[in-house]
Structures are given as structure tokens and as C-alpha cells.
Amino acid sequence: MITIFEKIQELEEIPSFSKHEQFVQGIINAIDEKIISKGEALPSINVLIKKLGFARETIMKGYRELIGRGIVESKNRHGYFVANEHTEQTIRVALLMYLIDSFQEQFYRNFRNELGPNVHIDVFFHHGNITIFETMLHMIKGKYGVYVISPIPHPKTKHLLELLPINKLIMFDRYEDLDDEFNYITQEFEQSTYRILAELAETIKKFNELIFFHVPGSLDPVEIIKSFKKFTKDFKIKNRILNEYKPGSVEKGKVYFTLDNSEIWKIMKDCEIKQLELGKDIGILSHNDEVVKEIIGGGLTTYSADFSLMGKRVAQAILRKEKVQEIIPTILIRRKSL
């Protein structure tokens, strides 16, 4: 029976192959020819050195490439194993997201399309829960070529992210500072929120109060709350911060600002009941744009980063193997509601 060592050694006859290429392709050929199957252990580095005469660094580099392509996985203190028999894929990506809402869906759809069919993606969700986040990171560590992570604002997050190989991490959506240089394509909340509110100031002043809905301890970016408070102070805007919208409480002369779509739909339902006109009797400002907000009520004013562009740019960074530190611009889209 032909062994893995023989599959690697037979490639010595190809002059254009380096030792590294010979090792990687030999392992791939052994998997393709069913000499070894998914879940089975591969030879240790020391055994390969003895059998092949290759340098330790050559074998380690080869295993690193195979791990990056999702073909091999490393299990701590247990060695290397076949992770995937689909050897044609060029890379294996772990994508850890908050959850699937319309914005994350925009990101994923463009991310998936841009990467193309030969890149394997496993999608995980942490739902903003730090315990789930920690469990997921421990589960995926060492099994992927790239880790695309949307972090949680939490004291433990920095330490948990630094457990991953920093050169394989791409942070997206929210930003969490790390000690070492790392790749990210994120949005920015504090300066952009203040800029947007300042741009809307004259319109907001036509109403008698600005009401912001925010639940303390929620996943709402704290930078937005800071900017809201600074804006209302700087522009002398009468305001309130409420935990939630109570059905039936909509009032003429108010501007309602919320990050929660469910609050918007409740407000608009009450506007219809009380025959209040958007943009005239009340104002609404929403965070994160989506198709329905272009249409409903004649159009809702929103400010948002482009999640479609974010997904595309993260995918391009992976395919091009480029170092990237990028903030996706936040854009105000003015419509009837404000």
C-alpha cells in the first residue's frame, strides 16, 4: 500500500517543485487518492523529518499552509489531522457575527459573493453574549486560515481575540483595540454620530424635543450615547433619553432617534393611528439603512455605514492577502422623516 511519504517523495521528479510545494501537494494527493481520510492523523513533524530528510521549517510551513486552506487542522498536543477532503479550496474562513439581521445579511451576501466558490466559510453567531463568544473562539482556534470576527464591547474581548494568530485575524463591524498590529475593516460611531446630528441640527430645532431610546447595559455603542449628549449640550437641544418606547406615547413636535427597528415600527403604527405626518408633525432618525426604510412612511432618514461595501472589502483583503486598516464611511441619507 502506498504511504503518505511515498506520495510526497514521488514529486521529487518535478524539477519546478520546491521542497515546500512537494510537501503540500504530496499531502493533497494522498487525500485525493484516499490514502488518508478526514479525521485521520497525519505524521508528526519529527517523523516526517526522519522519513523525508526535509528541514523542520519546511514541514512546519507546509502544515501552516494546509491549515490555512482548511485541509488540515492542528489539535493542541495531539498533532495534525485531515480536516477536509475538498482539497481544491484555497482557504478556510471562520466568520463570527452577532446574528443575522438585515445589515449582517448585507455584509454576508457580498462577502460570500466576492470570495467565490473555492473559499470555504463556516459561519458562527455570538449574539452579543461574551460566554458564547469565548466558547466559539476556543472552538475555532487552530482550525482556520482566516478569522473574520465582529467583537463584543466587553472587558474580556481583547484577551480572547489575542488568543488567535494575529496575522490571520480580520476584525469587522465594531473595533476593539489590540496590543499588536492587526487587520480591521470597521465602522466608527462617535465622530460620525456627532457630525450627522450637527448636520441635522437646523431641522431638529424645528421640533420642540429630541428623544433618544437607549437601554442601559445594552449592546448599543456607547460612543453614540456620548455623541448624543455632547450634541444636545453644544446645540442647546431639549432632549430626553428613555429606556424604551411605550406604545401609544407618540407626541406631535418630537424627533425620535433609535437604533432599534422594533421601536420605529411601533412609533409609525401610532403615527398612523393618531394621524401624525412624518417630517411635519414628528421626526424620526434611524441608524443603519435598509431597503424598507427607503419606502415606509415615504422614507426614513438614516445614517449608516455601507455593510455591503464592508463585506466586499473584507473578502478582497483575504483574497489579496493584504494588510488593511480601514474605516467604512458613515453616510447620512435624508428622506421625508427628518
| Rg from Cα | 26 Å
Q: What is the helical fraction, as a range of percent?
A: 25-40%
Q: What is the CATH superfamily classification of the largest domain? A: Response regulator
Which secondary-structure class do the elements indicate? alpha/beta
End-to-end C-alpha gap: 74 Å
Shape: elongated
> What is the count of DSSP helices, taking H or I runs of 4+ residues?
13
Number of strands: 14
Q: Give me the side-by-side strand order of the main sheet.
A: 4-3-5-6-7-13
**How can the largest sheet be summarized?**
6 strands, parallel
Q: Which class of the largest domain in CATH terms?
A: Alpha Beta
Q: Can you write the helix and strand succession as a string?
A: HHHHEEEHEHEHEEHHEHEEHEHEHEE
Organism: Pedobacter ginsengisoli
InterPro entries: Peripla_BP_I, Tscrpt_reg_HTH_GntR, WH-like_DNA-bd_sf, WH_DNA-bd_sf
GO molecular function, one term: DNA binding
Pfam families: GntR (PF00392)
Summarize the structure.
Helices cover 39% and strands 20% of the residues. The chain contains 13 helices and 14 strands.
Written account of the structure:
By secondary structure, this protein is α/β, with parallel strands linked by helices. It folds into three domains: 4-82, Winged helix-like DNA-binding domain superfamily/Winged helix DNA-binding domain (Arc Repressor Mutant, subunit A, Orthogonal Bundle); 91-187 and 307-328, Rossmann fold, CATH 3.40.50.2300; 190-305, Rossmann fold, CATH 3.40.50. Helices cover 39% and strands 20% of the residues. The protein contains 13 helices and 14 strands. The strands form three sheets. It has a six-stranded parallel beta sheet. The chain has a six-stranded mixed beta sheet with strand order 9-8-10-11-12-14, with helices on both faces. It has a two-stranded antiparallel ribbon with strand order 1-2. Helix 8 (190-199) packs parallel to helix 10 (222-234).
